[in-house]
């Protein structure tokens, strides 16, 4: 059977069940350029993107047994890709959390419908966006939109002094996650 005729999930199944890594070359051929493009968009360096693709594909092969099929293979691979790129940038001090504005455009204002769009993402996509946030921003978003806590309770849990400070931090966190949503899932906005 032609390996390129198999679906991603069939290829993964063959790799795992038959312990035949030669099927991985079909996945590599299918996703190499897409992953490279995503790496380039994060690093703005073709040589770094080339290196990261190799690392990501190796990491993907090592973690393939943990792929459960709850999302598509491509979504799972892109989560590995973005997380690996972010970790690379952090380790190489190429970005800090506060440098995101230089990489993506943070909106000046957002609406609750913007946040509704973000929170309606499938869980693996939402988790990817949340992982890109500062831990404090992630906590704010989860407390407000997943736990449905009011501002006073959030202030208490996160030891934030003052309602205006809490509102400002929450607004900043919302802007960041909407910016990530706009950057990584633009087709879903329409």
Give the helices and strands, then pairings.
Blueprint: H1 8-18, H2 24-43, H3 46-63, H4 73-91, H5 100-103, H6 112-119, H7 123-131, H8 135-146, H9 151-157, H10 163-184
Tell me what the structure shows.
The chain has 190 residues and is mainly α. It has 2 domains: 3-91, Rna Polymerase Sigma Factor, Chain: A (Orthogonal Bundle); 99-189, Arc Repressor Mutant, subunit A (Orthogonal Bundle), CATH 1.10.10. 68% of the residues lie in helices and 0% in strands. The longest helix is centred in the last third of the chain and has 22 residues, at 163-184. The mean pLDDT is 82.
Unreliable stretches (pLDDT < 50, length at least 5) are none
CATH architectural category of the largest domain:
Orthogonal Bundle
Overall number of strands = 0
- Based on CA atoms alone, the radius of gyration comes out at 19 Å
Q: Round the mean pLDDT to the nearest integer and report it.
A: 82
Distance between the termini: 39 Å
The string of secondary-structure elements, in order, is: HHHHHHHHHH
Shape: elongated
Largest sheet: none
**Percent helix among the residues?**
55-70%
**Helical element count?**
10
Strand content of the residues, in percent? under 5%
> How many domains comprise the coordinates?
2
What structural category arises from helix and sheet content?
mainly alpha
- Give the C-level CATH assignment of the largest domain: Mainly Alpha
Report the CATH topology name of the largest domain.
Answer: Arc Repressor Mutant, subunit A
